[in-house]
Design a protein that fits this description.
Number of strands of chain A: 8
Oligomer: homodimer
Shape of chain A: globular
Structural class of chain A: alpha+beta
InterPro entries (chains A, B): cNMP-bd_dom (IPR000595), cNMP-bd_dom_sf (IPR018490), RmlC-like_jellyroll (IPR014710)
Domain Cyclic nucleotide-binding (chains A, B): 25-87
Protein name (chains A, B): Crp/Fnr family transcriptional regulator
CATH topology of the domain at 3-115 in chain A: Jelly Rolls
Order of helices and strands of chain A: HHEEEEEEHEEHHHHHH
CATH class of the domain at 3-115 in chain A: Mainly Beta
CATH superfamily of the domain at 3-115 in chain A: Jelly Rolls
Largest sheet of chain A: 4 strands, antiparallel
Number of helices of chain A: 9
Distance between the termini of chain A: 33 Å
Radius of gyration of chain A: 17 Å
CATH architecture of the domain at 3-115 in chain A: Sandwich
Strand content of chain A: 15-25%
Chain lengths: 186, 186
Amino acid sequence: MELIDALPHNLKNNPEIEKFLNGDFQTKTFKKGELISKQDQYNRNIYFVEQGLIRSFYYENGKEITTKFYIEGNIMANSDTLFQNNPTRYNFEAVEESTVKFCNYAKVEELCSVSLESANFSRFVLGNIITQMTDRISSLQFHTAKEKYLRLIHENPNIILRAPLGMIASYLGISQETLSRIRSEI
Amino acid sequence: MELIDALPHNLKNNPEIEKFLNGDFQTKTFKKGELISKQDQYNRNIYFVEQGLIRSFYYENGKEITTKFYIEGNIMANSDTLFQNNPTRYNFEAVEESTVKFCNYAKVEELCSVSLESANFSRFVLGNIITQMTDRISSLQFHTAKEKYLRLIHENPNIILRAPLGMIASYLGISQETLSRIRSEI
DNA sequence: CGTTAGTTTGAGAGGACTCAAAGTCTGTGG
DNA sequence: CCACAGACTTTGAGTCCTCTCAAACTAACG
């Protein structure tokens, strides 16, 4: 999926945005297992996933905890660095070979400070992210391991097929063994 | 807390925004236990909490599940209606007597479609909401009942003091009894 | 001061965890 | 093209956390 395809109609053929997309974005491909961004750094890039599967994760008690998966068409960034100016707690890792387009968020801010369309598009993107997060919170808040897994199958079957069991388990907040048992009984 | 005080400096004394705040907002006070907004409706208002404590909740298996608390200075809205155009799943209820300022989100959209400052302020607000939600997800994802409670004490002692135990328990995704036991052993 | 809402305590059941070990898959090098 | 190492998944056993149901207790409010 190309970045330009992700834009709503009213933003296509907008010269400001055209210039931005062509001028300020870089493309990079990461091999499976490669780290795209590391914890404890100030990484102000914003990434668009063109191809592949990427996850964010951190370590707790020596274990990796996957916080989110990003597939084709998703936007990815360290929100703790962008919005709070803290070094990020998260690592980004390519679960499969993945191609991303990225630019510094400062460029986005710059564009939004002069382009009303861009600022409003950015608002729209943020709104969508909030919607997704709301669903995720509700899934985590009051559901059993099995319910959470079934919900993920329903909402994002892609991830189930492409990510290893251990990553999915930690994403759901359950142990690997429990997830394996749930799979066998379905 | 007044709405105007919540604005960053660069937005104060902005005539567009001044006009908006004075013209389009209404103020209303709700008694303890009163519903501000009901589920299954298309409520496109956006609320600013001036005083009090409000919660959002829904019913699952006959039980009330509190999804979020809103205190003085918080902004409150049905994101499923605003961003996805679905009837909302949530009820808003005043936990204490509460005063809110509110306006239709269409007015915000209108303002943002002409005012660059407003659009960027809105982006800033959405960014902050995302930050909060990220923390909440991480709290829910992989922590025990006790850890979640201690974290809430740390991050929002206000709520612990002002909301009844049952609401807090469901907010944390644990049973009332478990929370009561955690409290007694601390 | 009684009624209702809210909280605590107890007992028992069950889900999910941990630790451990056995399978299974996958990719690399001989 | 096979064999083996390492990564990943499954299965088992035992434990503990948290749940549910029930009942007693306490606080709040008219």
